[in-house]
Design goal:
This protein is of the alpha/beta class and about 280 residues long. It has helices at about 60-75, 90-95, 110-120, 120-125, 140-145, 170-180, 200-210, 245-255, 265-270, 275-280, and strands at about 5-10, 20, 25-30, 35-40, 45-50, 50-55, 80-85, 105-110, 135-140, 150-160, 180-195, 215-220, 230-235. Bound molecules: 1-{4-[(3-aminopropyl)amino]butyl}guanidine. 1-{4-[(3-aminopropyl)amino]butyl}guanidine binds near residues 55 and 226.
């Protein structure tokens, strides 16, 4: 394959990041979506779903640590965690590092993502799919939260963007299903797109989460391959204090986990909730 082959993301009509396809590893259309996996000299192995970069070997730690450790450390005593999507296993790997977590349910719609990620992105799950605490369900996360009798301390929605199959994971009924599946004191977080590029999606999520939860907001982290600035993570709970846990408490809890991170620190945790004025003006 000539080194000049390029992949250009199709997420936005007026803008697209381009990566060199230094070696194409896999391409197919599964029942649910188009999958592409290739090697890039800068980012390592790259997973693309329906034309959008989902995760790369080099920068995945930022997203997965922030989606996992922020809610788990804010909660402080999470024992039961639900992951919606996340088929590459990166969130699961980070959740498994928390020894106090007793049970993890993960609901991923596309078995191809799990299997291909185990094969081509093995460091994402790093064996976590074999963790005895895991109940992996291949199924529809939207239906799961409507129907389950299980209750969780933290729910992490690691989906694709709201166009296509994941659209329902940004809907009011999904959010209310998550709310009913949370234990008292529970926290819901979700990837919500790049704040500058997808501001409307933040607004929509805030409008839908607002009536359901006593407290909702966003926190931010810049992930290079989610191009266009800071990635926004939706945050919802019924206890506003969970978003403001003080630094000393976070430092103490973080030490107790004994987790070695590459991005997360208690200071970054606190700072990630500081929103730029253009987002505050939306009254999210
Ligand atoms: N899922 C979220 C990818 C979001 C990409 N969107 C964007 N660039 N606006 C990632 C799955 C990783 N486990």
């Amino acid at each position: 394959m000539p080194a000049s082959e390029r992949f250009t993301e199709t997420l936005y009509s007026a803008y697209g990041q381009t990566l060199s396809v230094d070696e194409k590893l896999y391409e197919e259309r599964s029942e649910h979506q188009h999958l592409l996996i290739f090697r890039n000299a800068l980012f390592g192995t790259v997973l693309v779903l329906d034309g959008v970069v989902q995760t790369t070997e080099k920068d995945e730690f930022i997203y997965h640590e922030m989606m996992t450790h922020v809610p788990l450390l804010a909660h402080g005593a999470a024992r039961r965690v639900l992951i919606i999507g996340g088929g590459d296993g990166g969130i699961l790997r980070e959740v498994c590092k928390h020894r106090n977590v007793e049970h993890i349910t993960q609901v991923e719609i596309d078995p191809a993502v799990v299997e291909l990620s185990k094969q081509y992105l093995p460091k994402h799950s790093n064996g976590a799919f074999d963790d005895p605490r895991l109940n992996l369900i291949i199924g529809d996360g939207y239906r799961f939260v409507q129907e389950t009798d299980e209750r969780f301390d933290v729910i992490i929605s690691d989906s694709t963007d709201p166009e296509g199959p994941a659209q329902v994971l940004f809907s009011s009924p999904f959010y209310s299903g998550c709310k009913r599946s949370l234990r008292p004191g529970g926290i819901f977080v979700a990837q919500n797109g790049v704040a500058f590029m997808q501001t409307d999606e933040l607004l929509t999520s805030a409008q839908r989460l607002g009536p359901l939860f006593a407290d909702c907001s966003f926190y931010l982290a810049a992930v290079p391959t989610y191009a266009g600035g800071q990635m926004a993570f939706a945050w919802a709970s019924d206890d506003a204090k969970l978003r403001q846990v003080d630094i000393d408490t976070l430092v103490k809890r973080w030490r107790e986990t004994a987790i070695k991170s590459c991005y997360y620190t208690p200071e970054i945790h606190r700072a990630s909730f500081a929103l730029p004025q253009y987002l505050r003006d939306l009254q999210l």
